[in-house]
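Hi V.,

You were right to ask for the full record rather than a summary. Here it is.
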Amino acid sequence: MRTIPKALAEFREIVNERGQRLRKLPFEELRRLDHAPIERLTVESRAAAIGIIVQLLPSGGIRVVVQGFIKNKLFGQSVALDGFYKYPDETVAPMPDAAFYEFD
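Predicted structure:
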């Protein structure tokens, strides 16, 4: 049975925590994050990066995606994602899993 490496599990928690924190921000503040700098960090001695994607929706809402990449031990990298929709009335809706496919 294959298990998730400790670094990847920890990194996923970090990405999810960033998403939870963003959900609490006001709509207008989130809209201004569309050019937020990429956060670079190290998790269990592995290089990682977290970016925030903010996309305007035709409905007037926004889609916010927290996209993280962490280098694998040998080759390549793994991706961790969190995301949600937020609307001008400050309501928040979850992103369905299928909506994440374009960010892999």
